[in-house]
């Protein structure tokens, strides 16, 4: 199809973006063909009247777990038991696939045209990626991580991650995961907020430096980048020394850590969203213990400190939601963009740039997506209001275009309790 997006205001996704009225965006197939002055004759194009709406690159979510909904919960569930059940027979495996496909569609219809999965069930993520690309399912572009590598007693061990007991086994598990052609390898190097048994332990180091290095070396030998779950300074240091490419979550860095970021050309993926409920909600709402709230605040502060320090040094920072954690849904990427502005002190324009072209560059796709310019993939969204004035404009998307396919007036089913509680912190 050939479309002409008319009567819109362009936000191109670059760091210095300003609203640009008076332009028509021409789409041909899955590409942005040209950007021409308004009023240019386009007889062969179907016109889509944006009626003064703001057209911009689709959002990119760099940290997603597709199997989980983000539904609020008070009682902590057993992920091992849930995954065992979902993979116990062919029927339940097909149900699990459909669940992930439904959540991927929700991501798309909320304005996320590319997502990066960093821990999933078996090879569902890469299978779904391929089905979407072939036109067999509706969803965003997926950079699939599939199963992660953890250690016995480590984060997500036995559910979304295999357990390695030695460097040799870690390398073997990377090779096993690579057989399903993922786009990256995920390591669970430290514990998380809910793994900690006492205050101050949310990022307890679980994976040895030797094991981290073996996994990274094997992944890189196979041409795969490595993302790592880390929530303590010690964990960040071990991850970077071992060769990890992206630090997911993060912690307050010291000078040595910042030097390692620079030396390794690594990036930080900020995920403020999942820590916020534990850190800031009343415990009567989350059901969190005093220890969990304390650790949630520690992790949230560490993520923010890491993002600020990296930005000050010119180290790339990306954004992801860690969707699947309680209260963190598949339609709320806009909140992470808003939190980045609110807590890290960046401008609205820089926050939107980070969630589009910045995230594309972190993912290695900066030449393909992330900005509105001729030759790039036609991954676009349209909002009624200007997000450069208020990022909450991203909450309501009037139009989504993914790889040239148009989704008009997209709607997603929302969780009322999550919306109500999260809105208190806008």
From TrEMBL:
One of its GO terms (molecular function) is hydrolase activity, acting on carbon-nitrogen (but not peptide) bonds. PANTHER family: ALPHA-D-RIBOSE 1-METHYLPHOSPHONATE 5-TRIPHOSPHATE DIPHOSPHATASE. InterPro entries: Amidohydro-rel, Metal-dep_hydrolase_composite, Metal_Hydrolase, Metallo-dep_Hydrolase, OTAase-like. This is Imidazolonepropionase. It comes from Vescimonas fastidiosa. It holds the Pfam family Amidohydro_1. Keywords: Plasmid. Residues 54-406 form the Amidohydrolase-related domain.
């Amino acid at each position: 199809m050939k479309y002409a997006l008319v009567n819109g205001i362009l936000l191109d996704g670059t760091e210095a973006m300003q609203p640009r009225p008076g332009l028509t965006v021409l789409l041909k197939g899955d590409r942005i063909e040209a950007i021409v002055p308004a009023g240019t004759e386009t007889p062969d194009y179907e016109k889509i009247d944006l009626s003064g709406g703001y057209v911009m690159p689709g959002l990119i979510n760099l940290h997603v777990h597709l199997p989980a909904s983000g539904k609020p919960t008070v009682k902590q569930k057993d992920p091992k038991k849930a995954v065992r059940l979902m993979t116990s027979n062919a029927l339940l495996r097909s149900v699990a696939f459909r669940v992930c496909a439904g959540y991927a569609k929700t991501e798309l219809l909320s304005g996320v045209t590319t997502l990066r999965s960093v821990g999933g069930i078996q090879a569902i993520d890469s299978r779904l990626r391929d089905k979407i690309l072939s036109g067999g399912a509706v969803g965003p572009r997926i950079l699939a991580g599939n199963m992660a590598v953890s250690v016995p007693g480590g984060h997500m061990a036995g559910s979304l991650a295999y357990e390695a007991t030695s460097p040799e086994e870690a390398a073997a598990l990377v090779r096993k995961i690579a057989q399903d052609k993922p786009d990256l390898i995920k390591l669970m190097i430290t514990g998380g907020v809910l793994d900690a048994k006492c205050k101050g332990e949310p990022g307890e180091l679980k994976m040895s430096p030797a094991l981290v290095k073996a996994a990274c070396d094997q992944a890189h030998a196979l041409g795969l980048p490595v993302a790592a779950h880390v929530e303590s300074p010690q964990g960040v240091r071990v991850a970077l020394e071992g060769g990890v490419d992206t630090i997911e979550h993060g912690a307050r860095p010291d000078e040595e850590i910042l030097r390692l970021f620079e030396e390794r050309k690594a990036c930080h993926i900020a995920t403020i969203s999942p820590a916020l409920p534990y850190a800031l909600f009343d415990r009567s709402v989350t059901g969190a213990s005093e220890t969990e709230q304390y650790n949630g605040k520690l992790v949230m502060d560490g993520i923010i400190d890491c993002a600020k320090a990296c930005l000050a040094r010119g180290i790339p920072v990306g954004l992801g939601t860690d969707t699947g954690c309680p209260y963190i849904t598949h339609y709320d990427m806009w909140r992470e963009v808003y939190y980045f502005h609110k807590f890290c002190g960046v401008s609205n324009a820089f926050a939107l740039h980070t969630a589009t072209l910045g995230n594309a560059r972190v993912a290695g796709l900066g030449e393909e997506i992330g900005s509105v310019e001729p030759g790039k993939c036609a991954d676009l969204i349209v909002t009624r209001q200007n997000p450069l004035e208020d990022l909450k404009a991203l909450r309501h998307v009037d139009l989504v275009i993914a790889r040239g396919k148009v989704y008009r007036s997209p709607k997603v089913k929302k969780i009322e309790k999550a919306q109500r509680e999260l809105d208190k912190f806008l």
